[in-house]
Amino acid sequence: MNQAAPKPHSLPVPEPDALEHSRRLTAYLADAIDAAGGWLPFDRFMELTLYAPGLGYYAAGAAKFGRLAADGSDFVTAPELTPLFARTLARQLGEIFEQTDDAQVLEFGAGSGRLAADLLLALDAEGTPCERYSIMELSGELRARQRDTIARAAPHLLDRVAWLDRLPDAFQGVMLGNEVLDAMPVRLWARRADEQGRPVWFERGVTLTRDGFAWEERDYAGALPQALDALADLPPTQEYLTETHEAASAFVRSVAPLLARGVLLLIDYGFPSREYYHPQRAQGTLMCHYRHHAHDDPFYYPGLQDITAHVEFSGIADAGVEAGLDLLGFTSQARFLMNAGIVDLMSALDPTDPKTFLPAAAAAQKLLSEAEMGELFKVIAFGRGMDEWAGLFGFATGDRSHAL
User: Fold this and answer.
1) Which candidate in 2, 186, 201, 346 could, as Cys together with 309 as Cys, close a disulfide (CB 3.0–4.6 Å)?
2) pLDDT tens across 349-381, in order?
3) CA angle 77, 362, 12 (to 5 degrees)
4) Distance of CA 291 to CAs 75, 237, 271, 324, Å?
5) Strand 377-384 to strand 259-271: parallel, antiparallel, or no bridges (unpaired)?
6) Which residues touch 9 (CB under 8 Å, ≥6 apart)?
7) What's the farthest any 2 CA atoms get from each other in the chain?
8) Which letter does DSSP use for residue 283 in this model?
9) Whole-prediction pTM value?
């Protein structure tokens, strides 16, 4: 079944050099589709679009993280929104440092470096300094940007930062990933009724037509991902489109054995399985971000936009536990930040100083509001060697790990 993707309208037109870059990646993707026999499963298409060396969205050298569309960025992360995010997170990291005597951080995919810079400064201010801050980042351009961000914000702490070419054999401290899982490739699945009205699952992939990239769904003869069992009770004729997250689960399973002692803390947007695979979520969660515009066409100017999917946290929890980690907590970003003291930090600001207080209050509202990031974003924590510890105070109330 072929289906052309809808084309988004009223989006900013890229500059000529950006268009040329997208043209090169488009040709690269077309060659990959041809080499694969005319069809690529979507997870492979997404992987190449985001990470193809020198061409993919995260590998091509474009400035993608920032505050305003005018700077060429495509989305805003919590650390870019306000230093309150890192200052609050630093309280949780400081508690872990004190309990484990391992004042080290390993951050995956550090973006612009803003979170690293703010955490280093906040941990020092809290009296729980980070002795070594390691960053696992594959993009050379982003490494340079991260170094520049830290050098400008915290030059006296730059010597504590190291960029890794490979993961360590073992690590003690805090492993940290903020908006990392959502950028990992997902498989797409479409449920249709056959001529007898029986439900049939197809894997959705990408083919090439005269009009460009297009969807093509193919019969899947293998065993379906277990996650799709959550949809077994759908009405037989209900059509449904969704994702499964093999790459994100594999990432957790791959880093879990490296954690000798400490905490793996992951922050991202998504839902547990019972909410993710809900009958009403029949169009899935795949989303694209281009210059602060969100739309659902992953074929729009490849290499110039981000492609993401919400995280299915029950599968992430299962992957961590199966890899030998203890599940320490799972809650909303709002509850985590309030437990960790963001209200206290806001209370310390001077409300008579509008230039400082009003932007901080607006940013805190965005971080905490159910209508903004507060409920959509979740925080999940795993640990090893923490058996005698009472628990992370970021999950002191509102812990939903029992429902994963």
Assistant:
1) 186
2) 989 998 999 999 999 999 999 999 999 999 999
3) 50
4) 7, 38, 25, 40
5) antiparallel
6) none
7) 70
8) B
9) 0.94
